[in-house]
Write a structure and sequence with these properties.
Blueprint: H1 2-24, H2 33-37, E1 46-49, H3 58-74, E2 81-84, H4 91-102, E3 107-110, H5 116-125, E4 130-134, H6 139-142, E5 147-152, H7 154-172, E6 185-190, H8 195-209, E7 216-221, H9 228-240, E8 246-249, H10 254-262, E9 266-269, E10 281-287, H11 290-302, E11 309-312, E12 319-321, H12 332-348, E13 362-364, E14 370-375, E15 403-404, E16 407-408, E17 426-431
Parallel strand pairs: 1-2, 1-3, 3-4, 4-5, 5-11, 6-7, 6-8, 7-17, 8-9, 9-10
Antiparallel strand pairs: 10-12, 13-14, 15-16
Helix pairs in contact: 3-11, 4-5, 7-8, 7-12, 9-10
Length: 434
């Protein structure tokens, strides 16, 4: 009788476990805190391909720090993670990946957008190795089971950083009825005019506008992910254009250096630059890659399927803000309280960065050139014909209606950003050159 009761209990437990597993889906291979302490991960060897040297690049350092956090947390030895630095976005990436396979890696991660095509070549040659790529767009259409993309809703973090910038502008004396007026001009140093960068600077600007609805912004591009001189010069150009606060989506310390020298407040990206700009650093948003790396490694460890296209969020711990700079606010606690309140709205799903009632977007012609005085009407059922380029092809053809419920659904149809609208209030100054 006891055996019969025990069998029934075990069956019920098994059904419950399967039900929970199905509800969790692909996240089911995430380890618990206990699993991080004791398991045997000796079957894991990770290869990590980086565009730059993390000693010099805030972008690559952010990945390196996350990987090292996970390595230590899972008890992996240093020999179980092989780093390859300064790997160009070309055939060198394929070769580096092939070499890592030869050295016994069963998970290979590449961190730059331009690595994707070359990493995919290696994935096709090595079907028993899992290939993970950050910021890419091809996994959901490539039909390659061992090739995966990942990104995070960093636009929410940038929006929060924009709120912090707006609060700094208040403290600087901007506001209705104040001498400096209520329409501050801010600046942004971008790497390339890609959707990823455009999504980032637009979300940051909308964060500023949540405090100052009449704020305007000028943007200039360096056409490089990492060039200290170009980024510094671009920031200096924006300061000369009377921009009173600068942010960036580029990987060096060039812009923070220019801001510190000029005494202009700065919002950086991928980590704190307070050591470079102790008097001007406000805050930074960044993607924390540790949750994804833990997830993917545990999937390989347990033989589970890795999601083809994975998007981390604030709720998963994948979107983070640094501590507020020590010298930029009179009352840091009050600023942090406001940021926490906005963050809670994101977690609750009650705040959407790209609320289409909050901005006007220019229409563009067939060549992508803005048509003056013509704007999309997002109240129409077909959203005035606007579609996003989600299933990326060589011609960047718009293919997916991503607007519903009154907002643009960024990073929901694909993890990598596809917001490509040009909104009123932002002036594109084009490429910066020395």
């Amino acid at each position: 009788m006891k055996k019969r009761i025990l069998s029934i209990v075990l069956i019920v437990a098994l059904v419950a476990t399967l039900t929970i597993g199905l509800a969790i889906g692909l996240t089911a291979c995430n380890p618990t805190e206990e699993e991080y302490v004791n398991p045997d991960y000796s079957n894991i060897k990770v290869g990590f391909i980086m565009l730059h040297d993390p000693a010099n690049s805030t972008y690559d350092k952010n990945f390196y720090n996350a990987m090292e956090e996970v390595r230590r947390g899972l008890g992996l030895s240093e020999s179980q993670v092989l780093y390859r630095h300064t790997i160009p976005e070309g055939p060198e990436c394929t070769q580096a990946a092939d070499d890592l396979v030869e050295e016994g890696c069963n998970i290979i991660f590449a961190d730059s957008f331009g690595h994707e095509t070359y990493l995919l070549e290696s994935a096709k040659k090595h079907p028993n190795v899992q290939f993970l790529h950050a910021t890419g767009t091809q996994a959901h259409t490539a039909n390659q089971k061992n090739f995966h993309n990942a990104f995070a809703s960093i636009y929410e973090g940038r929006y929060l950083a924009g709120v912090a910038a707006g609060l700094k502008l208040k403290e600087m004396g901007y506001g209705e009825g104040k001498d400096l007026g209520d329409a501050p001009l801010v600046g942004y140093v971008g790497a390339f005019p890609y959707a990823e960068v455009k999504s980032g600077y637009t979300s940051w600007f909308l964060g500023v506008r949540s405090i100052f609805p009449k704020a305007t912004m000028k943007v200039t591009f360096t056409n490089s992910w990492f060039d200290i001189d170009l980024e510094k010069g671009a920031a200096e150009k924006l300061i000369a254009e009377k921009c009173v606060l600068i942010s960036q989506h580029a990987d060096s310390l060039g812009a923070p250096q220019a801001c510190e020298a000029a005494g202009v407040p700065n919002v950086s990206y991928n980590g704190s630059t307070e050591a470079t700009g102790p008097n001007t650093f406000i805050i930074s948003s960044r993607i924390d890659w540790a949750p994804y790396l833990k997830y993917a490694i545990n999937c390989v460890h347990t033989g589970s399927q890795i999601a083809t296209d994975w998007t981390g969020t604030i709720a998963t711990g994948s979107v983070q803000l640094t501590a507020i700079g020590d010298k930029v606010f009179k009352d840091k606690a009050a600023v942090q309280k406001q940021l926490d309140e906005v963050r809670d709205q994101f977690v609750a799903g009650t705040l959407h960065v790209f609320d289409t009632s909050k901005f006007q977007a220019y229409k563009k012609d067939d060549k992508g050139v803005i048509i003056p005085d013509q704007y999309y009407d997002f109240t129409k059922a077909d959203h005035d014909g606007y579609k996003a380029d989600v299933d990326t092809d060589a011609a960047f053809t718009p293919d997916t209606d991503v607007i519903s419920d009154g907002y643009f659904h960024e990073s929901e149809y694909r993890s990598a950003p596809y917001f490509d609208l040009d909104i009123v209030g932002i002036t594109d100054l084009g490429n910066y050159s020395k």
